[in-house]
Here is the input.
Amino acid sequence: MTSTTRNLALLALVVAAVVSTGAWGSQERPPNIVVILIDDMGWRDLGCYGNQFHDTPNIDRLAAEGVRFTDAYAAAPVCSPTRAAVMTGKYPARVGITDFIPGHWRPWAKLVPPPILNHLPLEEVTLAELVKPAGYVTGYFGKWHLGGRAFFPDRQGFDEWVVTSGRHFAPRFRTIPPESVPDGTYLADYLTDKALHFIRKHRQERFLLFLAHYAVHIPLEAKESTIEKYRRKPRPGPGVYNPVYAAMVEHVDESVGKILRLLEELGLEDRTLVIFTSDNGGLRQRFDGQGPIVSSLEPLRGEKGTLYEGGIRVPMIVRWPNVARAGAVRHDLACSIDIFPTVAEAVGQAIPEEWHVDGVSLLPALTGSAAVERQTLYWHYPHYHHATPASAIRSGSWKLIYFYEDGRSELYNLANDLSEQTNLAQAEPEKAAALKKMLQMWLTEVGARLPTANPDYDPERAHRWGRRPQRKR
Here is the structure.
């Protein structure tokens, strides 16, 4: 048994003891769990993270009543890998899903990205399966993107579920199982209603609710009245202020507000752990340069699909009344992989060593009793998207990105260069070498698949996109 496993087992005993003595406020049982995952929401999209254009009073309230992490990261710069990480607590490279399913393809690029799994394997223990032994009823509503029908939420431990895909207004979004949805229904409202019904139905039980919004993903679509509000709203300064995107952010905020109000109305507020985050960093524009400019990621560099801060740094807010310190702002390194062990500790479930969970519990940081027990995070994105294949490591304030096409390393000190403008790889060769060695050791440890040379490489056509060839899985 490793020290981590021993610590988790000890923490589980402590949690059980605390609950039994009623030391966690008014709770006499483990908390309900609500996870709200937003699609493509950038680090600075919310008022509580400094946005002066988007109106997000409900999420700002969540932050004021909970803990806001400034240095929280998605496990990947695109959706499917991060969703797998949230579900399992593992790095995407360990699971085998390192790109969104099925991913993009550049037939004539310099490298051939490694194959990925096209589903989350059924043998993986998911967040829903984690809490089942503790007597939880589980619900999942929204975007799944972790495999086809044979790998849907009902095969991964969720009792009640609806998976959606398509666009943002009915009839242009689809539901599985099929439902009759009135034309003009906004998807975020539809999913919120599903979540509210689930909470009402199971208010006397322990429940895990996972609400996976498709907003604020493109295509940009929102209610006209809200769009018009932002067309008329004064701009706070230079930058990108897209009225439709701003309206989508506000619709997500409205969803969060409805859930918070219902928890309060039903007397469940004090015994519900709410986790809010995004599946990757924000989008500036489509990967192929088409379509509108969606948002500004400043002061962060890059965007979704890159391993610069704009592609992986995300909002993360956790509220647990009488446990998490209200209004606290934490600078610990937090990540999507930490949701699984945090929930495990909250419900008193030990994590066996053989599960190979990479995340750590955030509970010490939530209570203020200690810092998150880690100094280093890793990313592996060996795919073409908004950048070329790369892997990255952040250790303390230092961050190194390794690019596979040319073997180039970029080194940044985020403490004084959050925008990643000054590459220190040449000025700090020892630091760069040490981080690169750590990154290589981690890639080996998790069994990361690497890109290979492309026999069809054509410099003249390398930038072009094409159809992904069919692979046997």
